[in-house]
Design a protein that fits this description.
CATH class: Mainly Alpha
Helix content: over 70%
CATH superfamily: MetI-like
Radius of gyration: 21 Å
Order of helices and strands: HHHHHHHHHHHHH
Distance between the termini: 64 Å
Number of helices: 13
Number of domains: 1
Number of strands: 0
Largest sheet: none
Shape: globular
Length: about 230
């Protein structure tokens, strides 16, 4: 029991850094892929665009529990065996499995698409007349104008990844060094709860809220502007 307590205490910083790493990577991948996909659906014209958008909306209606088993089996098999190319038999107990299984969500693409559609087309037309390519228009003009949506999406993604418990609980089983902070807090409860040290458990829970509170306080203006996109029609 003493060994368990000491191990849990020494790993708390490691669990915090693990959650921070996963959250930042998830924010980065979500912003990049959601921006590009949202811009393509909002501005580009290609065959099947409407069908693709409807399929994306349908995927937002499917509960995560429906695809849970299939996602688990895909990670267990190393994405249909492709992970063997990198010398890995399975993506369970790896951060790559957590990242690839939730690279970008349909909700993030929808948010960016709706925001891009609120930007006047004249801005892009002026850039195209000046010789800019669609990618240059996106990264040099549209994205700098999309700070509210990007800020809101970054906060929501960071918060969701930082607090996520169930999926990491299934994917990351051993060793304890790869746990995220919510899984580490569960270990705290199992270890310190048996000896009645609930003060330490509550302190760990409070500490886990601090990064999200700081992020929200720093980007509150962008968050409010971003989530209100489309709420008011002129």
């Amino acid at each position: 029991e003493t060994r368990s307590l000491e191990t849990g205490q020494s790993l708390f910083l490691r669990w915090t850094l693990n959650s921070l790493f996963l959250s930042l990577v998830k924010v980065l991948t979500t912003l990049v892929f959601a921006s590009m996909a949202g811009y393509a659906l909002a501005r580009l014209r290609f065959p099947g665009r409407q069908a693709l958008f409807l399929f994306m909306l349908f995927s937002m209606m499917v509960p995560g529990q429906v695809t849970f088993i299939s996602n688990y089996l895909v990670l267990k098999d190393g994405i249909f065996g492709l992970s063997r190319l990198f010398g890995v038999e399975t993506l369970l107990n790896t951060y790559a499995g957590l990242i690839l299984s939730g690279l970008v969500g349909a909700g993030a693409v929808f948010i960016m698409k709706q925001f891009f559609e609120s930007i006047p087309r004249e801005v892009e037309e002026a850039a195209l007349i000046d010789g800019a390519t669609p990618l240059q228009t996106l990264f040099r003009i549209i994205l700098p104008m999309s700070t509210p949506a990007l800020g809101a999406l970054a906060i929501l993604t960071f918060q969701g990844t930082w607090n996520e418990f169930f999926w990491p609980f299934v994917v990351l089983t051993s060793p304890r060094e790869i746990y995220t902070l919510p899984l580490g807090l569960l270990s705290f409860r199992n270890a310190y709860g048996q000896v009645g040290d609930w003060g330490l458990i509550l302190a760990g829970g409070f500490f886990s809220m601090v990064p999200v509170l700081i992020l929200f306080a720093a980007f509150q203006r962008y968050f409010v502007e971003g989530v209100s996109v489309g709420a008011v029609k002129e």
